[in-house]
Specification:
Elements: E1 10-12, E2 18-20, H1 41-45
Antiparallel strand pairs: 1-2
């Protein structure tokens, strides 16, 4: 895979869905604003997670529960707590 480790944060949306995002809010990393815990999964899905990237970069959707995690198969080790 080209990496020995990957650190991310797992948070819960307003409707109890799990999402991967480091920040407690979506302000810095998306075109939205507000705490992750106060936004529904539907609202999070509508955010653009590449709005600050270079021109010409492909639009990236908000990472969703299980969608990207499956790529890592049995190589995952979990620790910490859900916030």
């Amino acid at each position: 895979m080209g990496a020995n480790a990957l650190e991310t944060d797992i948070r819960s949306s307003k409707d109890g869905q799990i999402v991967l995002i480091h920040d407690r809010t979506v302000d810095r990393t998306t075109n939205g604003s507000g705490p992750v815990r106060q936004l529904t999964l539907a609202k999070l899905r509508g955010l653009c997670a590449s709005h600050n990237w270079s021109p010409g970069e492909e639009r990236q959707q908000f990472p969703l529960r299980g969608k990207e995690i499956r790529e890592f198969g049995g190589h995952l080790e979990f620790g910490g707590h859900l916030t």
